[in-house]
Design brief:
The complex is a heterodimer of chains A (about 140) and B (about 120). Chain A contains four helices and no strands. With about 140 residues, chain A is an all-alpha fold. In chain B, helix 2 packs antiparallel against helix 3. The chains are: A mainly alpha (about 140), B mainly alpha (about 120).
Amino acid sequence: MNNEQFLILSYFIVGALVMAIALAVHAYLHRPLAGITRTFRNSYLGLILRRLFPVGLVLPALAGFLSVNYHACDRNYAKIIADRSYLVEKNQEQISTACLFLLMALFAWGVIVLISLATRPDNPVPSKNAGQDPQ
Amino acid sequence: MHNLMGFVILLLISLGLTYAIWAAVSKSLQGLLNQVVKLPDGTAFYLRTFLIGLLLAAAAGAVGTVFNLKADAPFMEYVWRVASGLESVCQYFFGFLLGYLVLITVLVAVLGARHEQ
């Protein structure tokens, strides 16, 4: 495999990996979030939050992945594909940045849940699987 | 091969730190959340967010460290590269824990005041 093929393949594989990380985070958190939104007075707000939750995780992860610039230090395309270790370095940077963006998105969702908890009714409906230790 | 070993060692140390922080804090955090949130799904959400945040911080620090040393590089070059990666991991842990602590403090203040009303 030459460096150009490696660049194309690794770019899309890392992109898919980043999306998979975001979707895994969503899969782990969507049930407790759905339980929280069930206690809302306004059911439409809960529905909107449940539908926006995957978008609000995948988009930041994707933004982190896409924010990495291969043309740093005035490298042209020939220089970029000349160095395999530079390509690997950029792939690592893409995963790392996507993780950081995802971390920031989690904080934002934490604040949204905090606001929703502060405004929920006093007698919420408990869900079946609630309160389990995540271990 | 040595570069890969260096990366694996860095990743293992990062995951070990993640586990140490989780083991030290998770039980008391669960107790606090149960007391304050009074909604089991809310407790589960914040506990899971804490675990995922730690794992993402560890992954961001470890994966962001580039191991491109030459095959004949001396042993200490690898040690310094692992140390540099650990520095990033520690910084991300610190940033995450600081942010999470602020979030939980606000949560306790807001919901505590609400329960007292």
